[in-house]
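Our preliminary data section would be incomplete without showing what the modeling component actually yields. Below, a chain of 226 amino acids is followed by its predicted structure, encoded as tokens that our downstream tools consume directly.
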Amino acid sequence: MSSHLNSLLAITQLLANKPALDALCNFLSLKHCPSGEVSRVYFGKKVEDNRLRVEAAHGFEPENCYVGKIFPLEIGRPSGRAILENKIIMEVNNPEYYIKYPAIKNAPIPYPWSSQVTIPINDQYFMQCGRYAPISEGDEIFYHNLQSLMQIYFNRIGKVALEVGDLYGKNLTARQEKILELMRLGYTNEVIAQKIGYSPSLVKQETMLIFSKLGISGRKDLSNAS
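Predicted structure:
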């Protein structure tokens, strides 16, 4: 239980700084699983035609889960069940899982998870956490508290413009203008880093600030940003 309390404290302290959704996702992948391993976390959003779209993800292989991926909202997936029944779904990875959720293909993955938690946040957003530890005592209370923290976070930032502090509407720096120009041309962070002579990690940090200043959630929204 003490590990859960420590995790909740660390998450609360991070939320006090109004992190970008991508940064929060990365942080949760390090903090929510009692195994101490980097776990899988993603945030999804309901979009048109009763579908779900991945808004932020960490700990996945790119071919398995990536930002912008769209899939159906259906009871045959834990995400769909959590949303439709409006409750936290906790599952273990066993053969019955793939019978219970036929929409999920039983494909081998490099680092198989032991348990999974899907958390509805509000009428639009949800999160899913893949763990490398079995379900244990205190997990249910921990994830209900995490759900409450996520509800506060999403309500606090309103439209989920991925604000960092009060950056929304502020002018881009010259470097950010250049990175934005290259992003609009479709270049990856790695290629942008090579072109402007900076590290990929710095470029990633700058892209998060760019999204915050423009009030958008990611590259997919660049075409609508001024």
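Residues 158-165 have pLDDT under 50 and may be disordered. Residues 2-156 form a domain with the Beta-Lactamase fold (CATH 3.30.450.40). Preliminary results of this kind motivate Aim 1 of the renewal.
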